[in-house]
Amino acid sequence: MGYGYLADRNRVPTATLTSSAAYQANAPLDNVKTLPLVAAAVTTTLGTAGGPVTITGAFPERYPCTYGGLFDTNLRQAARWRLELFSSAVTLDATTRLFDTRGADGADRAVIPSLTDWRDLRWGDPNLFRGDLPPEDFALYPTHVHCIVPVCRPAAFRWTLYGPAYEADNSEATGYSIGHMWLSDGVPLARHMDSEDVYTPTDEITRFPGGGVSVEPGTGYRSVTIQRAVAARGLRDALFDMARRVDWSRPVVWLPDVDSLGDCFRYGGLFQKREPHANRWIAPKLTAGAIHLEEITV
After folding, report:
1. Which of 25, 157, 158, 232 is at a distance of 20 to 30 A from 150, taking alpha carbons?
2. How far is the C-alpha of 145 from the C-alpha of 172, rounded, in Å?
3. Cα–Cα–Cα angle for 123, 126, 127, nearest 5°?
4. Reported pTM
5. Residues 217, 143: Cα–Cα separation, whole Å
C-alpha cells in the first residue's frame, strides 16, 4: 500500500548555505529560503558530471528529516541531481553520511522519474527511451524535485546538480533557477483514505447573441482535497497542529504517493490550505475530516 505525505515545517530557512557556483546579483542563493517562487536563486553557470553545481547547508541543530525538495526549478528532464545528508556540519564525507540518493551503481537520479508505461510509448516519440513525459506535456507542469528520506537527524546537507536547463521560452539556459528549497520531517498518510485532485481553468468565456463565443485565456490552478475517513488520535492531533501552524498563508508540501514519485510530479507540489480545518468526532480516539489545498504558482 502506498502512502501520501504532508509537511509544513521547512528547516532550510534556518540553515547557513554555501555553493560551488556564483549567483546573479539580483538572484542570490538565500532566495531559496523564501517565497514567492518568482524570487528564485539563479546560478551564473551550469554543472557537468565532472564539475557539478553543489549547494551545501549547515543547520544550527540536528532536525528530524524525512523529505527533501526543490521547487519551481528550470532543470530539464535530462538533468541529474543528488541529495546527501550528514551527521556533521564540519566533515561532509562517507564517515558522516546518513543518506545518499545514489544507488549501488553510483548513478544520480533523473529530474523526472519514469512516468510512462513502456507499453504506451510509440516508436519515434522523443521520450521513447527515457519513458518520461513528452516535451509538450512536460511544459504543462512546474519542475519540482522530490526525495523521500529514511528518518534521520542531519546536521548538514548537500544538493548536487548537473545537466541542461531551460528559459521561460524553452531556449537553453545558462544557469540553474531554484524557486524554493525544502528539508523537513512530515506526516505520512495511508493511501486507502481518499484524495481528490482538481484542475480548475480560469479562462473567461463570453457568449454573444447568435451563438458566438469569445474566450479570454487565464491561468489554471490545481487543488486537492484529502479525505480522512477515519483518523486515529496521533494523526488527528498532528493534522490539527499543522492547521494551526500554517493558517492560509504558509506553504505545505503534498505528495500523493511516496512510492511513485513520478506521480508526484503531476499531482504533488507546494500548496496552501484554502478551507477551514475541522474534525468530526466518531469515537474518543477517532475522527474524520478533510484537508483542502491549492497549489502555489508563480
Report:
1. 232
2. 20
3. 85
4. 0.89
5. 22
Whether the CB-CB separation of 157 and 83 falls below 8 Å is answered with yes
Which residue in the block uniquely carries the three cell numbers 473567461? Answer: 204
pLDDT of residue 182: 97
For 203-225, the pLDDT digits (tens) are: 899 999 988 899 998 888 899 99
C-alpha cell at position 5: 505525505
Instruction: Say if residues 272 and 246 touch (Cβ distance below 8 Å).
Output: yes
**Neighbour-count burial of 257, counting CB atoms closer than 10 A to its CB (0-12 exposed, 13-18 middle, 19+ buried):** middle
Q: Which residue has the higher pLDDT, 88 or 106?
A: 88
